[in-house]
Amino acid sequence: MWVLLAMLTFTNCNDADFLTEKPETFYTVDNAFSTSEQVDQVLVACYSHIRVMYCMTEESVTAWAFRGGNGTDMYDVATIRRSTRFNDYGMLNTSNEVFYTNYSHWYQLISKANLALYAAELPQIMWASAADKTYSVAQARFFRAFCYRNLGELYGGVPIVTEITTKPRYDFERASRVETYQFAIDELEAILNDLPETAVQPGRLVKGAAQHNLCQLYLDKGLALEETGNTSEAKTAYDKSISYGNLLIDGSLYSLMTERFGSRKSENPDFYFASSEADQQPNRLYSAAGYTFEGNVYWDLFQEGNQNYQEGNKEAIWVAQIDYAAYKTEDGQSKLQYSREFGPVFRDPMSAHLNGTLEDVGGRGIVQVMPTMYTRDVIYEGKWGEDLRNSESVFRRTFLGNQTTSAYFGKPVPWSVIYRDGESKDAVDAAKTQCFPVSCKIATDKYIGISDGENRSNLFRDEYLIRLPETILLRAEAKMRAGDNTGAAADINLLRARAKCSYMVQASEVNVELILDERARELVYEECRWNTLLRMGGTIAVDRIKKYAYWDDPRATLNRNFNLWPIPQVVIDTNKDIVMAQNPGWN
């Protein structure tokens, strides 16, 4: 037997054949998909990608800049986060991690959208109906357009990639900024009627999301055309922006919420002035101490269970879905890390009066990004102060001392004490950058999951990606740029009336600065402020960063003019077959 085996081994074996792998299946893009459900899984990955970028599910300097607005007029860093400052232009260059990671995020999402589009057309895919396929294609094209809008706003003209890439390329060519916007416009207008007016499943794309983006894209296009001196075409673009805004704002589907609603419509927020859970007793409630904060419709907008159109919120156009059960059982990413990332750290500079990480101090904050004095105070000075968005339930400025040894125990700690007025510059800087008013958008009086071990770092409500007030502000801006200040003021006053402001805007006051101020009041912790500043062009970003930054870094180092982020240097360097130009101000 051993002899026979030896003979077979030496006479019948071809080494090359023996060593050649013959897998029964090679997966390629063409055969990896067999069902329409698999195509939908690619779309689900697109939604998940958006959630990661917009909901701060991951901690990174990129998230703090792109989503958190670090380095803009609205947000800066605390003394304990100086190493992650994003407005020191002696340090910022084209190789900065933020620029590359953000740029890559968009192209990764484009790649997923292109894959879904390719897979949707494979002959073996059977669809339940033609409408199902049409909606899948529309969602993928929306995501692609959404990416190019963001890329155009942040980086200007970029390479437009519409096919899946199966081998390395080194010959990408930049389109112009106008061409980039136009591609996104064409994509959205092509699928506008393929998106439903409403969706059964919360979070899925609807026509209103495309109309909002078209309102923004035509505004963007008009601004880009004006930069090149093409004022007549710019006016046409502004008019188109207004018309798309009209469809949403003046239609019957969406409207501002003006009356209290939802899961807590009969409640007021309340807090315990306590630094330990054991001390959270009825006699320690703010209301028991005589400090009652009246809930209002704006506060309702940010309470759990109130974000979706399907839940009765008529200003919700597109909402990212956050689910505590999914967070606990799946990937741990279905969360809003807002209390952690955006929350103050009273416990360091104010431990004698305000200590702990409970609800009364905004949860377990580590202040990765903090609001500048512009965001917390300047926009509410004087006649602008009476505003629901500046109310105690929405933007809380009253903090009762929670240490029994404090002279302010159970009483409001004065801001002069919180800010350590009269002490050393280092002490004042530490206090002012770590202690600030707390928005109901980033913290709550009712955290979820405490019994499961959660520590008041995360919120588990759904998150707005598009809310009607932003559409209104886009239309107001388009009207202003088209020469209709009266119409722009009327739009802004829609929001101010809902916020029960005592002062209404006059047409003579409307300008870019006013628009930016109103966006800050309405969309704090919501808008991507870098997109807003950069898409406006000119020196708006540079001027406002230098004016409102907390630290002096940009005033000392921002000696260049720019209105775009740079193309990441590694992208330019690896595109070896074609020269890719860098954006002005970054050479």
TrEMBL record:
Q: Where in the cell is it found?
A: Cell outer membrane
Which UniProt keywords are given for this protein, alphabetically ordered? Cell outer membrane, Membrane, Signal
A GO cellular component annotation here is:
cell outer membrane
Q: Which residues form a coiled coil?
A: none
Question: Has the keyword Membrane been applied to this entry?
Answer: yes
Q: What region holds the SusD-like N-terminal domain?
A: 17-219
Which InterPro entries did the record assign?
SusD-like_N, SusD_RagB_dom, TPR-like_helical_dom_sf
* Name used for this protein in its record: RagB/SusD family nutrient uptake outer membrane protein
